[in-house]
Structures are given as C-alpha cells and as structure tokens.
Design brief:
The radius of gyration is 24 Å and the shape is globular. With 602 residues, it is of the alpha+beta class. The relative contact order is 0.09. It contains 10 helices and 36 strands. Helix content is 17%, strand content 36%.
C-alpha cells in the first residue's frame, strides 16, 4: 500500500519516531536512541559531531533495552529469547563491530538493573531468577564476577558513583515489593549506608534512586521519597548521613536529575496528566520554569552546555525531541505522523474520591457515541495528555475513547496509588464503573455500544470487569492479560510474584479467598459480552497457560470469543504486528457491535 492510500491510523504506527537520545557522560557527542525506522524498534548509535547514525541492533523481535558506556566506547544491550525477558547483556563498539557477551561468567537471568563505570571496564549487573532471587555482581573485564549482594526478595541496581567507589541498590528485603528501601555499598559489597522509609512495614513509604552527583568524590545521592504523600526529591549525603530536603512548591509528583556540573537539578513535574520542567539551583534554591508546550514530557536530560533536551507530545500532536535552544534535536526522515484530536478532562465523583478521566472523540461528533474504555497497565502508571496511536485509531473509526486514572494510578498522591491493596482489581473497577455511568449520563457514550479494553494490567481489569459487571459492556478486548490469577502467580517471573504478595497480602495458598475474589477466572461463567484476547506465547508477565485456562472455560459453554496468539513476549516491538493486532481488535468490535453479527469462537 502506498503512503497516499494508507489510512491515518496506520501511518501513526508506521511513521518513524525516536526516543530521547541518551548521551555518554565523558563523550557527549556520542548518543544512543531507539527508533522504529526499519519497522521494528531497535537501538541506534548517533555521532553528533559527524551526524552519522547507525543501526546497532537487528533482531526479529526488536530491541529497546540498551545503555551507552560513560566513555562512549560501548553500547550495551540486553539479549533475551523471543521477548521472554530472560537473557544476557551483550555489547558492541560504538562505531560498529561484532557483538560480544558483556558479562561472561554470569548465567542468563531477568535483568535487575545495570550501571557502567567510567573506567570502561567495570559494570554493576543486577540479576533475578526464580531460584536465586536477586543477585548483584561487580563485573570487571578479565576478572571473575564478584557477588556483592544477594536476597530472596526483589532488588535492583540504582547507580554507580562518578568515581566508582559507591553503588546504590534499591531493595524490598522488608517484603513490600511496591515500596523500596535503599542501601549503598562499596565495590566489595560492604555497606556504607542504608535508608528505609517503610518503618518496618508499618508505613508504606517508598524510596527510589535518582542518581549520584556527577562529580568525583561526591557522596551526594539524589533520591525520591514519599514522606509528604507524593513523590519528591531530596539529596542524601551517604557518608555523613545528612539529608537535604528540597521543598518545592509544586503540586503533584516531582522527580529530578542532576545537571552535569552537579550544581543544579533538572526537575520533572507531573500533575493532572500533564507535565513540565524546571531548573533548581542548589546554591540559591531558585526554581526556574523551563518553557515547554502544554502536554507531556516523557523524558528530559540536561546537556553539558546547560541546554535541556526533552521528548514532548500531546494527545493531538506526535512526539518530538526538542531542545531549549528552540531546535528539533532529532527528526527522523520519511513518513510524517498525522496528528489526532485533543484530549479533554473529566472529573468524576467516585467511591474513593474524585477520578480523573481523559476523553477523546471525533472532531464535531455529538453523542451518544460508541465508546472505548481503554484501561492503562501498571497498575502503578497513569494515562496522560500524550500521543498514543491506539486511542487515535479508535477515534478515527468514530469512537469516543475514555481513559481512566483509577485508584492504583500514579500522579495523584501515594494514598491514591496504594488504595488497591487486598481488594485488587475490584477497587479499580469501582472507579471504572463510576466513570462509565458518568459517560452514559452525560450523553457522551451509547450504553449499548461500550467496549472495555486494556493491555497487561488493563487487560486483567478488562476480563475482571466483564465478569463482575456483565451488564455494563457490549464487547471486551483484553491484551496480554492476567486471566487466572492463581496460575499466573505460579508461572510469572519472581519480581511479579513479590508484587502480588504485597498487593494481596500473601501467596495463593496463604490468602486463597483474596486471590479468588480478584481472579477473572472466578467470574468467567458470568461473562455475557463477546471476548477477544491477544497473548504472547513467551510472555513472562502474563503467561500463556493461565490465559488458556480462561479460554477453555469460555469454550466449554460456547461463549463468543476469539483468541490471537503471537510469537513474542509481553507485547511486540514489530510495527506490522502492532498494526495487525489493532486491526483485529477493531474488526472484532465492529462485528459484535452490529446486532446481526455472528460470533466466531476459538
């Protein structure tokens, strides 16, 4: 199909796009970014001095996990099998050449963080397996890997100090997988300092590593905390123990990273599904806004010359990498991405407080409209005023799209995020029901043509919603979902088992009633709407066996359903595959929103 004949919704997937370029700390002209220019998302090396760009990886299922060494000499990338997230780190020279195993002596595993030293020969590598839990190694070229950390609970590498003398680790040794504590160790594994805001599990306060100061011998570690009920930054001197609280008069969640000279912070502020940037001078404590267009900044970095580069988009405007110089930093050649329509806000009273929903609909359309309720994954994530090709495709086909930042979502305070514990899934769906009722009563949504959909956790909520709210939905479309919570628990990767134990208060054997109450399989016989499920055969997060269990129950009572299984993991990095999946989803909805449709079965 030629570009002129291609519909806009498909162009939005095919148009080349790029991530925010990462740059080498000691060679800032060398950058690494992700692009779909070949039709598959892969890593690209970019020499800014010469302008040369080179595709660094080339795998059938794509590659997005990569890191540039501080000296700019090496590109590290994670090599898993068929998208199952279980593999090893490899590296290749920045200018091109053969790949080599970067961590010889370490067996394949799930990745648990990576930090590279400035000497070009040292790395801190985090690993996770079902048998060992988390292990962290110091890896030096030509030497045997040195184990510096081990624990049965989940943990990960936070950062490596500028001079290589300190290593920050995030861990959940206290058993709460949603709230990390911090430990700083020396390269031999001995502890320098520890910080734990969970208070032994009685207060659910998390910490996160944002990075060591980019100065030799500087023991300052920038971290995120939740002591005032939302994410904010502070500076922790890990040697003296001094904590410098940065009290910023900004609502919503605040994150930060260092400017390259260590004298200021680049502040990323998220509030009400939008975001903006600030510069915070540590000497004067002056906070200065960095102008960005209305919408969302999904990544930003301060360059050595003091400029800031950031990846920006809105629901209407496609992503672009901009600079505070006013220039577009990286503009891939080829087809341009068509715009979509702006998003509007709805604030709906719910059982746990006011719920924020984002609404898109065809320009000039008057309701009631067929409406897609598109539930985000996570659950600790949120929808924002940012560009998304999937919702835009539904709008192009005449649907309104409603995205809901239900309880469990980030960006609305710690209490909102943590509210879903124990009644997992059911809490979120109470909020979905409240927004559904608002959408119908306001005249936006046609109650006879409502589609419930989502991916990952959103796919889980879709199946759970179809069973617990069977009269509310005309069609259900679940993408890589949890369908049978007990089987999913036993088959999923260990870090997700830890999260499930935190959310539900134990294992399926310890709290069987909670797992049953939160499992879509419990309610499968109550499902009335036709169900479409897509699933990756190699998915370690929402494994295929538990989906097959759910589908078998649908088939046993000849309930209308279709299943699409594809050879990848938790989603696909191949553009053709993404387009195929969305086309199948939209065709399924169209068939089953037509009264005379005949329902095919798997």
């Amino acid at each position: 199909m030629s570009e002129s004949d291609m519909p806009d919704w498909e162009k939005r997937f095919r148009a080349p796009r790029v991530s925010l370029p990462d740059w080498a700390e000691d060679a800032p002209d060398r950058s690494l970014f992700v692009s779909n220019a070949t039709g598959t998302y892969e890593l690209y090396a970019w020499d800014r001095a010469s302008g040369e760009q080179r595709q660094a990886t080339n795998r059938p299922n794509g590659t997005t996990d990569g890191l540039l060494s501080p000296d700019g000499a090496w590109i590290w990338w994670f090599d898993d099998k068929d998208g199952d997230e279980f593999g090893v780190w490899r590296r290749q020279p920045f200018g091109g050449g053969a790949d080599e195993e970067a961590t010889p002596g370490l067996e394949p595993s799930y990745p648990s963080g990576l930090a590279l030293g400035r000497d070009g020969r040292t790395a801190v590598v985090g690993r996770s397996t079902d048998d060992e839990g988390t292990t962290i190694y110091l890896v030096r070229a030509g030497e045997e890997p040195l184990e510096i950390y081990r624990h049965a609970e989940s943990a990960g590498v936070g950062d490596f100090s500028h001079d290589g003398s300190l290593i920050a680790i995030e861990h959940t040794e206290h058993g709460d997988a949603m709230h990390s504590a911090l430990r700083v160790v020396r390269p031999d594994g001995s502890t320098v300092a520890a910080l734990d805001d969970t208070r032994g599990g009685t207060e659910e306060l998390g910490l996160e590593v944002l990075g060591f100061a980019p100065v030799d011998g500087d023991p300052r570690l920038l971290i995120g905390h939740q002591r005032r009920g939302r994410w904010e930054p502070l500076i922790w001197d890990v040697v003296s123990g001094t904590q410098t609280d940065l009290t910023l008069d900004l609502p919503g969640d605040v994150s930060a990273e260092w400017y390259p000279d260590g004298g200021a912070l680049l502040i990323a502020h998220s509030h009400k599904a939008r975001s903006d940037l600030f510069r915070y001078d540590l000497a004067t404590r002056e906070l200065t806004r960095i102008p960005t267009p209305p919408g969302s900044v999904s990544g930003a970095t301060a360059r050595p010359d003091g400029t800031v580069e950031y990846l920006w988009s809105s629901a209407a405007e496609p992503p672009v990498v901009r600079s505070t110089t006013g220039e577009v930093v990286l503009d891939p050649p080829g087809m341009k991405c068509p715009p979509s329509v702006p998003v509007s806000d709805a604030w709906v009273e719910g059982p746990g407080g006011v719920i924020h929903a984002l609404i898109q609909k065809p320009a000039g359309a008057v309701g009631p409209l067929p409406t897609v309720f598109d539930l985000h994954g996570g659950p600790t994530w949120h929808d924002s005023d940012s560009f998304a090709a999937g919702p835009a495709a539904w709008v192009d086909h005449g649907y309104a799209v409603v995205r809901i930042n239900y309880r469990g979502s980030t960006g609305y305070g710690r209490a909102w995020t943590d509210a879903l514990k124990h009644r997992v899934g059911l809490i979120e769906l109470e909020d979905v029901a409240a927004v559904r009722d608002w959408a119908v009563e306001s005249g936006l949504a046609d109650p006879e043509r409502l589609v419930l959909t989502g991916g990952s956790w959103g796919g889980y909520l879709t199946l759970l919603g179809l069973g617990t709210q069977p009269a509310s939905w005309a069609v259900g479309i679940a993408v890589v979902p949890v369908a049978d919570y007990v089987t999913a628990y036993h088959d999923e990767m260990e870090s997700l088992k830890a999260m499930d134990r935190t959310l539900l208060g134990g294992t399926p054997e310890e709290v069987p009633d909670r797992f049953a109450a939160s499992s879509p399989l419990t309610y499968v016989d109550d499902v009335k709407a036709p169900v479409y499920i897509s699933a990756g055969l190699n998915d370690p997060r929402c494994p295929i066996r538990q989906i097959d269990n759910y589908v078998s129950r649908l088939a046993a009572r000849s309930a209308p359903h279709e299943v699409y299984r594809y050879d990848a993991g938790h989603g696909s990095l191949v553009v053709d595959e993404r387009i195929k999946q969305l086309r199948l989803e939209m065709e399924f909805a169209e068939r089953h929103l037509t009264p005379t449709a005949t329902a095919p079965t798997d």
